């Protein structure tokens, strides 16, 4: 029971903030990891009709290619982490996606976007999927060496392939970054971090050891297999492409055309040529019969994924940027074949020397003719740098376009833009001396700020309601974690209570404080998505505005339900501070009757001055003036700013373990 309670507490709730100008936008805001082109119906000129893009922002998006410009045609939301790979099963109009959230999901590819299955067998990031063109089967692979084959109809794993043995020199499990399947779903090919290409035959069962194809000298990053299951291609971090004969179990060709890691491969339907791309930003088309290779184009960023259109005349590529680009291939877009081809070597070292020699002579070897893409699906800038201010409420960010902005994570909104200011200098100029307990964790892994709340940490900070702009008396203290949870889930709570006929408890802190949470509801909730896990540990994501109230309480961590429905949460110890308040020597002011006091750590000097003034014998004229115009408080001889809290004084001025000592005197003219 104790372990169950601990597990409940460890379940966290995350909210992801959209920028004010991109809420509801159809574009990616982080790198695009995977692409799939679909011919479908209505493809103009033999080209593809649809393009699917999957990104590091956890979304999968569909684009209509039938017009003059690509048009957004829907998004699939459900993954909670990077989507690393996709595979389309056109026979059943299904799309399979693999994610770092450890799930494989199956979606309707007909435009409805319905998620029809979720597979949860993987214990770590799922890095790749490969589908059979003529059968409802696919393979998934990921970290920890896990490889599964699946029946699409049931989303049940038909085989779990035996994990590769750990490499002796590394002492950890091999990870699998690439997977592909033949047309019938009988042969699966994988590439892993032990430099090995493995061939799995589903017909003999997962207990059988795979065929190992050796030759790569570094990680295998991409693989492909032909429809008949007789040939395979692999690309590696050793900058080579290898063609394998699966019947003879040998490497029939080694192609060295790149100067760095090969991350993406696409063979033509007859397997007479292959497109390759990777870290060196170049895409090459290589003839597998003559070994003649020519550069198709050079991208501005490394190329992580490719999707060739049905007519083989153009290709879409993506990488760490949130934008996706279309490039014409040889003969596409009215282009003629180029004459800057070369014969691929077998050694990447020799290829590199050849390039360096040509450059030394002032020659340019195999320069792509295309200088710019034929079309672009523009993405949004994603956050690439962030830093939390000392007040544990504001976060400074910088996006991929260089824009610097300030965010309020309690209100859930961007409060200020600094354009393209220097990030570090801006942070120094706005940093405060506040000392506030950390109550959240934060990252920008998805290209947007994700704020993670866990119990009891998220309830350990407090602040005054007026500091949050909630109004009310200036001595009302609130917990920002409590405020955020009530704001995020306010609509869900209201619908739950209406459905059950219950009312908010009279001991509800929000009600007792004059419904202080209300002003935040309309600012935080619409621009935020909720990410958490249900009772079985399966993660899910929804926009806060899409919560219908039909979601059961078991969809949320128990501690969240305690807070928003049962009006209770663990109140931490240590929120108060003891200090002594004495008149300064020679001040001629009356001493405080009981100079040893205890107050909230967030108490500010402005309030201390009001307390002191109330204990002094002042005339009517003095009583009419604000206390801070008459008095000042010092610590170790230093006059304290009005906005300093007791916690800040202890940390920045007092710097001792014993009780804080403050002195007061009349303010000098």
Explain what the structure shows.
By secondary structure, this protein is of the alpha+beta class. The chain folds into three domains: 75-331 and 343-377, YVTN repeat-like/Quinoprotein amine dehydrogenase (Methylamine Dehydrogenase, Chain H), CATH 2.130.10.10; 383-564, no CATH class; 576-666, Phosphatidylinositol 3-kinase Catalytic Subunit, Chain A, domain 1 (Ubiquitin-like (UB roll), Roll). 14% of the residues lie in helices and 35% in strands. The strands form eleven sheets. The protein has a five-stranded antiparallel beta sheet with strand order 35-36-1-39-40, with no helix packed on it. The longest helix is centred in the middle third of the chain and has 13 residues, at 348-360. The chain starts with a helix and ends with a strand. WD repeats lie at residues 76-107, 119-160, 169-210, 213-254. Keywords: Repeat, WD repeat.
Q: What's the SSE blueprint?
A:
Elements: H1 2-10, E1 13-17, E2 32-38, E3 50-55, E4 60-64, E5 71-76, E6 83-89, E7 94-99, E8 104-108, E9 115-119, E10 126-131, E11 137-142, E12 147-151, E13 156-161, E14 176-181, E15 187-192, E16 197-201, E17 211-213, E18 220-225, E19 231-236, E20 241-245, E21 250-255, E22 262-267, E23 273-278, E24 282-287, E25 292-298, E26 305-308, E27 314-318, E28 324-328, E29 342-343, H2 348-360, E30 375-377, E31 383-388, E32 394-399, E33 404-408, E34 413-417, H3 423-430, E35 441-443, E36 450-453, E37 463-464, E38 477-478, H4 480-488, H5 490-500, H6 509-512, H7 518-524, E39 528-533, E40 539-543, H8 558-564, E41 576-583, E42 596-600, H9 605-614, H10 620-623, H11 627-630, E43 631-635, E44 638-639, H12 646-654, E45 660-666
Parallel strand pairs: 41-45
Antiparallel strand pairs: 1-36, 1-39, 2-3, 3-4, 4-5, 6-7, 7-8, 8-9, 10-11, 11-12, 12-13, 14-15, 15-16, 16-17, 18-19, 19-20, 20-21, 22-23, 23-24, 24-25, 25-29, 26-27, 27-28, 28-30, 31-32, 32-33, 33-34, 35-36, 37-38, 39-40, 41-42, 43-44, 43-45
Helix pairs in contact: 4-7
